[in-house]
Amino acid sequence: MRTLTAFLIGVLIGAIAVWATFDRGSGLLGRLRRPPTGIPTAMAPGGQVREFRLDAKPARWEIAPGITTDAWTYNGQVPGPELRVREGDLVRVIVINHLPVPTTVHWHGVDLNWKMDGVPGITQLPIQPGESFTYEFVATPAGTRMYHPHQDSNAQLELGLYGALIIEPRNAPSYDVDRTIILDERALDFTTAVAMGQAELRGADGGNGRGGAFQYDLFLMDGKAASAIPIINVKPNQRILIRIINLGNLTHAMHLHGHTYRIVAKDGNPVPPTAQLRMDTVQLSPGERFDIEFVAYNPGVWMFHCHMPNHGDNGMMTMMQYEGFKPIGPVGHALHLAAPPAPAPQTAAATVSSPRRGPVVTVPMLDNRFAPASMVIKAGTTVRWLNRGQNIHTTTSLDGSWDSPGLDRKQSFAFTFTKAGEYRYLCRQHLLNGMVGTITVK
């Protein structure tokens, strides 16, 4: 028995030794040998301290010749400045808030200390108007990253607060052209006043856009539309890298004419060579990034655009132009936008049944709650839900007794309770935030 045990132990030790020889530190044993790696807190050897300043401030921004709009900007531009560092650098960003509202900056895709993540109420207090905050982190991992607020994100991103953070690897490949392009959409009537709740969007739905009810006018690349977008200048045989970032609300399908390219990174993370697809159109969901790489092999002037026709026709189109070539004629046309329609009459009340005679109780709908969340009433009482918050809300009963449409600011919905019982209801938009209520009828 002892001989058999010794033999089995010897076989096991030999197998492990062979495995370790072929593993070479990259497989399971390699992972077991390496200690767990945490978030780096110190600058890497050979790294540098890279300090930037971002002034969040209002501005007028020209999207295309003759078309300007309200914007909230970093350093007076949309997108904000591209911050380019090397992996292992110590990054220090001083954010000064000149906006009329609080803000933060989130470093999307960066491994950092949680207190630097820029989420109000979770990782930090919001940066109040007139105040500043310093973010500090070690740049890792390498790749195409981005930055944007997480304070009232829908409004602040819509007005232009976003930018690219490029973390170059220590041994970065060499490119002749390394271009970042940020995709976005723009509703021209989404102004500072709308964001502040002092005005409403145009059209029959009105509102302030916080429920996603935007009517987009233009589709942007790097904060510009159509001929205002800087073209991509190349020469034959150059090695090209284009980093595409979707910081908008919609999906976009970016197509380059006359060329195919390889997807070398997804969301900033390298794609292994054996998995790199060769494509001519790549689709990006909100928040998604793709790095595309190719060698300039087909001289001429080539269109680069979103293949969703209404997006490309309304601004999301530029060119890749080889040295020595020019477009045959005028590129596109000036963007002529129809005047906004006159505001439609607001239907401030919607009811599933006409309110009957009897008492009326109003339940304010605030940003993520009903106030109060529960109440006791008598049969025959009409409850009127009034949206006094900034977001679109609904009031929807669990038993199907009533279901309101989306209610924007100052809109209301009424229902008369005629039968005793307990009625539970919720906001379909904000159920996960705990926006539920109970009405007990006696």
Any chance you could write out the topology, listing elements then pairs?
Layout: H1 2-23, H2 28-33, E1 49-64, E2 67-74, E3 83-86, E4 90-97, E5 106-108, E6 132-138, E7 143-148, H3 153-158, E8 163-168, E9 177-186, H4 192-195, E10 218-221, E11 232-234, E12 239-246, E13 252-256, E14 261-266, E15 269-270, E16 278-279, E17 281-284, E18 289-295, E19 301-306, H5 309-313, E20 317-322, E21 349-351, E22 360-365, E23 374-377, E24 382-387, E25 396-397, E26 412-416, E27 421-426, E28 436-441
Parallel strand pairs: 1-4, 3-8, 9-12, 11-20, 21-26, 22-24, 23-28
Antiparallel strand pairs: 1-2, 4-6, 5-7, 7-8, 9-10, 12-18, 13-17, 13-19, 14-15, 14-16, 14-18, 19-20, 24-26, 25-27, 27-28
General description of the model:
By secondary structure, this protein is mainly beta. It folds into three domains: 41-171, Immunoglobulin-like; 173-329, Cupredoxins -  blue copper proteins (Immunoglobulin-like, Sandwich), CATH 2.60.40; 349-441, Cupredoxins -  blue copper proteins (Immunoglobulin-like), CATH 2.60.40.420. 10% of the residues lie in helices and 36% in strands. The protein contains five helices and 28 strands. The chain has helices spanning 2-23, 28-33, 153-158, 192-195, 309-313; strands at residues 49-64, 67-74, 83-86, 90-97, 106-108, 132-138, 143-148, 163-168, 177-186, 218-221, 232-234, 239-246, 252-256, 261-266, 269-270, 278-279, 281-284, 289-295, 301-306, 317-322, 349-351, 360-365, 374-377, 382-387, 396-397, 412-416, 421-426, 436-441. Strands 9, 10, 12, 14, 15, 16 and 18 form a seven-stranded mixed beta sheet that branches. The chain has a five-stranded mixed beta sheet with strand order 11-20-19-13-17. Strands 2-1-4-6 form a four-stranded mixed beta sheet. A hairpin with a 2-residue loop joins strand 14 (261-266) and strand 15 (269-270). The termini are far apart. Residues 1-5, 11-36 and 339-354 have low confidence and may be disordered.
